[in-house]
Predict the structure.
Amino acid sequence: MEDLLEIKFLSSLENDGFEILTLDKLLGKYDLTNHYMTKPHRIKFYNILYFTNADDYHYVDFKEYPVKKGSLIFLNKNQIHNFSKTANYQGYIILFTDKFLSRNLINIQKVFYNILSKPYILDNCFEEFETIFKQLLSEYEDKNNLFKEKIFTLLFNYLILKSEKLLSLNFDNNQNKKYLTIFEEFTKLLHKNYQISRNVNFYAQKLNISPKHLNTLCKKFLNLSAKNTIDNYIILEAKRELISNLPIKEIAYKLGFIETTNFVKYFKKQTNISPSKFKEQLGF
């Protein structure tokens, strides 16, 4: 059984913590019918994908997302993704690390915080974003520019801020910002405690809010109930574990299920497929 491949950032670029290249350069020289980039793999760094021409799909955490001209995708580190084998798209990819982000002055938390079961995807961003990506690539490839890093950082910050503006759900008043802060705290708690509890009341108590309030927040930001949000997160973690060599019994225990049968029932209830069948379908 093949284990899940983890892709680390290139050690030769670790000091910069950043790379940008065209999708043609990334994908064009490979036979994608059997390449790791078209198989599910976990990235240990951040990605931004921008498509200048596309009529295909990209796969993130085992879900298929259509991409077209002007699509922009943000991927958090540790997410699992893969390209289409047909690779019918052109555009750019930016890869960067926490080290690179630490040198930036802006708060990018809202842009890159993982929204559980789906990546951030923007459409129809063509004209202005194409200009930004062209400039970023130009600055990146200019080895003799003494102001390269400063200019590059400004362009990158502008890209993030512009994206944040488009991604934000009208966070233009203090009330909405307060809601966002509470919701982000919930996602952090879920990340730390999903193996302990799958109960809405547990998280509501930790946040000092009512279960109804937590449900309202999840509806506002994800269009899901609080229970669905918790279940989606646990199922995503389960899927990530299932494409490994760990026995299902160990995965169940790792996810907080005392009995393997309870995990199997839970997984099947949420996905309409058994854990073993899920592994089989993905070839693991």
In short: Residues 148-167 form the longest helix (20 residues). The radius of gyration is 20 Å. Confidence is low (pLDDT under 50) at residues 108-118.
